[in-house]
Design the sequence.
DNA sequence: CCCTCGGTTGGTATCGCTACCATGTGCCCG
DNA sequence: CGGGCACATGGTAGCGATACCAACCGAGGG
């Protein structure tokens, strides 16, 4: 038998259980459990004793057992769509990390944006015993998917939706504020003739960014009207927009694209026209996706703490699911959490040539 | 009691347990367990019946219960280093998917390449009860990390190491063959003056790709000696290499960079010199990373089925761990699995201007 | 013909923890 | 003064799966 082998290996392994702590503290396992889980009906002296024992013995609860007993081995789903978003990598890291911390399982499911595909994906999730779902962009914008999920009684957290949907929890940065900040940055550099490439019209974040841009322009005042083109968050659409923006005089001295892919496209088109970035043209983006640091010159952009956001989303889901099971039925508190963004200045933005410092 | 209420509501909710499957298949839970875990003492008819039931009911074992009962910390680790590799995203998707399929938990751990950091990361993994680790590049090349892991008796699968390490399982594409294929492709287009940007010298894949390139050049024969520069897989290093390659006459008509980031850098530098790609210069890369399709012109490159490779790695780990525990001690079969690559032709490669078709 | 033996099954205990109920205090209120 | 209520605690019964052993069964050897 290989039992002896196991024994030998484990030696150091065997962990201290709740019973050990209970015995050590001279109370029942139940009391220990209550203390550890922040239960309410424990007297303060007892609590201190137990906490002491926990520290002394280095007790750490067995996740598997806890999950099993509390039937909280909940699975969470992560529905992802367009994987071109270099988002996904960081997003997954953050989400998985949080999931591991909470001891919940994370199930991935790919999903196109068509109703049929959504339905299929949701069905697969339900079949997999998933009780809550994280929705990264652009799926978080799809009312169809949200409705489908809601019908299956899933909890939902939308990540990085520009405007929080009314029917789901949400974690995002303040797209409006971030765009305003970036625009102010451009204005502070001395730019006057601005160009803007809008994002995909069916993502609410696009609006927020656009409005932030407009707000900054208006509060500054006295500028020639900015040139605006519609984009769709793809490199290709950025190229088209850039072509139009750069074709007609007077050419903008700074172009703010609603995401990095489009900003990269603007830079590519600028190069084609032998405009040097940033000396002849300043280009800034949004997202701080992988491409931002991997092109030359590096792209000045807005950094979103994607991993953190994904993690928070999972946290929210876990508390919602657990609290929901515990607390009275359906008391759906729809939290909306904002996290901090950051303007990352790289090489693609500079004072305009004609700046009147 | 709210039990009835739960029952009523649950219908779709309540996950199916091993007992349900057993009842459905008309056998005991034990037998189901044996089938699911690939146990040996099950007759074929019984096995089929059970598998059928599993599929019908959509059964998926409860991780918590399994871990608790078997005390088998069946967690797998994924040690990732340099996340600049846009690799990570797809890699995670594949790995997580496989992990979910097998019902094992995947624990992520970030790890720098220094010995100290490796030691710390491994310690964290051990503390987390991890029994096997997936090593994506570039970590799979680090003998230090492998040694560290092996000392902790972990199973290891290295992914995309150019040359399989002697002491670990491995899944990769045939870098040599892929590079040779790409080079033949360039030669077939009519290119004669070739440039090559080598990859980071401490990754064995770099060698393989370089040798594949050389092999194709030699088997073709009668070419001027190719121009070669050392790169380090970073955009920056690609820029430096491109500068040198394009500075001295005669300029190559095609440049093969050992990865996409460097290829993108070559393209950027070409643009700066007002060389049009692909008309004035053909550029090809390797990896088919996100950037390849998101620049203009699109990069002709070698596609690696990253997600699939990651999935296979997890599969191998699972069978190794389960088989290893069961089967006689230490019969470490070090499998090395090759998966198919694919040459993806986009717009960055064309016949040279001076081609003598 | 019985007994052993290897392949195949089912029963039972148990993993570590928590839900749930019972119990036991002290205290206020009717 | 007894019932009720808010706290504080302990006991018991599982959660879903596997380990381990017992039981069965057909075949072959003594």
Sequence:
């Amino acid at each position: 038998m290989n039992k002896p082998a196991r024994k030998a290996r484990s030696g150091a392994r065997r962990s201290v259980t709740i019973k050990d702590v209970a015995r050590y503290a001279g109370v029942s396992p139940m009391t220990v459990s209550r203390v550890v889980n922040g239960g309410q009906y424990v007297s303060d002296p007892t609590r201190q004793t137990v906490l002491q024992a926990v520290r002394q013995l280095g007790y750490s609860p067995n996740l598997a057992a806890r999950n099993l007993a509390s039937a909280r081995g909940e699975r969470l789903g992560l529905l992802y769509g367009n994987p071109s978003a270099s988002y996904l990598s960081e997003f997954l890291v953050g989400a998985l990390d949080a999931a591991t911390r909470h001891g919940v399982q994370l199930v991935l499911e790919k999903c196109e944006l068509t109703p049929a595909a959504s339905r299929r994906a949701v069905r697969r999730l339900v079949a997999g015993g998933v009780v809550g779902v994280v929705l990264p962009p652009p799926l978080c914008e799809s009312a169809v998917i949200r409705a489908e999920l809601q019908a299956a009684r899933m909890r939902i957290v939308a990540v990085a939706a520009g405007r929080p949907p009314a029917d789901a929890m949400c974690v995002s940065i303040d797209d409006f504020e971030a765009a305003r900040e970036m625009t102010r940055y451009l204005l502070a550099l001395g730019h006057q003739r601005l160009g803007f490439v809008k994002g995909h019209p069916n993502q609410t974040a696009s609006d927020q960014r656009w409005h932030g841009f407009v707000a900054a322009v208006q509060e500054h005042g006295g500028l020639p009207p900015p040139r605006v083109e519609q984009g769709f968050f793809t490199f290709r659409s950025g190229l088209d927009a850039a072509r139009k923006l750069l074709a007609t005089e007077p050419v903008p001295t700074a172009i703010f694209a609603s995401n990095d892919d489009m900003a990269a496209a603007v830079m590519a088109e600028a190069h084609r026209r032998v405009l040097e970035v940033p000396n002849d043209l300043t280009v800034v983006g949004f997202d701080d996706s992988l491409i931002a640091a991997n092109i030359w010159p590096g792209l000045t952009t807005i950094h979103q703490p994607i991993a953190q956001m994904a993690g928070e989303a999972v946290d929210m889901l876990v508390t919602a699911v657990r609290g929901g099971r515990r607390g009275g039925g359906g008391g759906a508190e729809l939290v909306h959490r904002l996290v901090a963004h950051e303007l990352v200045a790289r090489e693609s933005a500079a004072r305009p040539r004609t700046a009147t410092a």
User: Anything to note?
Assistant: Chain A has a mean pLDDT of 85. Chain A touches chain B through 50 residues (CB under 8 Å).
